[in-house]
């Protein structure tokens, strides 16, 4: 039981850090058309001493309704570049296009965000995803 408490605390920390990045649009269950530009808005929290480095936007097919682990495979890369969020809470909108060759059906849109935190510039990676329907 003594081992369980630190593991639960660590799991809570992981969940809390995962909530710092989110995909505001498209919303879960949105129909996304292949070969058509779609707005994807990525939002983060204002954490003070964070230096933005980059963001990768990608999409993974979910065959049989089961999505793979985005931390192991980013799937089809839709955009790679700097992340320069504005406003409160900070967010940035990107235009993405799912390629015509991507399979129809359920898929997970993924935002992978890399920052340097604190005065020691500790590397930090965040991943957020939303399930959409590709047609």
Automatic annotation (TrEMBL):
Residues 1-18 form the signal peptide. InterPro entries: Nis1. Keywords: Signal. It comes from the Eukaryota. This is Phosphatidylglycerol/phosphatidylinositol transfer protein. It holds the Pfam family Nis1. It comes from Metarhizium robertsii (strain ARSEF 23 / ATCC MYA-3075). The lineage of its organism: Eukaryota, Fungi, Dikarya, Ascomycota, Pezizomycotina.
């Amino acid at each position: 039981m003594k081992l369980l408490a630190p593991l639960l605390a660590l799991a809570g920390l992981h969940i809390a850090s995962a909530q710092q990045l989110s995909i505001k649009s498209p919303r879960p269950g949105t129909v996304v058309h292949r070969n058509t530009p779609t707005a994807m808005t990525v939002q983060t929290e204002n954490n003070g001493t964070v230096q933005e480095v980059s963001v990768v936007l990608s999409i993974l097919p979910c065959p049989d309704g089961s999505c793979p682990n985005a931390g192991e495979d980013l799937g089809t890369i839709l955009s790679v570049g700097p992340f320069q969020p504005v406003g409160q809470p900070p967010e940035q909108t990107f235009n993405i296009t799912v390629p015509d060759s991507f399979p129809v059906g359920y898929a997970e849109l993924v935002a992978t965000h890399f920052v340097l935190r604190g005065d020691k510039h500790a590397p930090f990676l965040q991943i957020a995803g939303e399930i959409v329907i590709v047609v």
